[in-house]
Amino acid sequence: MTKTLADFSANRLDGTAQSLADYSDKVVLIVNVASQCGFTPQYEGLEALYRQHKDDGLVVLGFPCNQFGEQEPGTSADIAQFCSFNFGVSFPMFERVDVNGDGAHPLFAWLRRAAPGVLGTEAIKWNFTKFLLDRDGKVVERFAPTTEPAEIAPAIKELL
Would you place residue 8 in the very low, low, confident or very high pLDDT band (cuts 50, 70, 90)? Predict the structure, then answer.
């Protein structure tokens, strides 16, 4: 049977378990994020997308990752404070995860297979790789770290 977002769960930054089935019927943008990355200013664009479209059914889910240049070394409390203070992040944030390798969170193992990157490679190359899912919890598209959140807006609007 084909998996969907509803088949996964993850821990929020405060440590509470969150079934991702709670985001069924939403358009979902999943992003592996980091606080000390050159792409970190994209938090501003992600928050803008979320605020602009959340009432229409969009949710952005942030998953901190320390696998790329150790750019997310802090604790969950550090991450929460950084995101809130610097970017006013109000979209759901989760505990730090691995997105590649044997220890990859099952959600990201599924995302990588469902939407391979350039030349069919599954590995996530860097922080701020973005996965857009439709209201059925199926992966529609993968966006590179260099893709600004505003550039994804047309694809999001098509799904809303």
Answer: very high
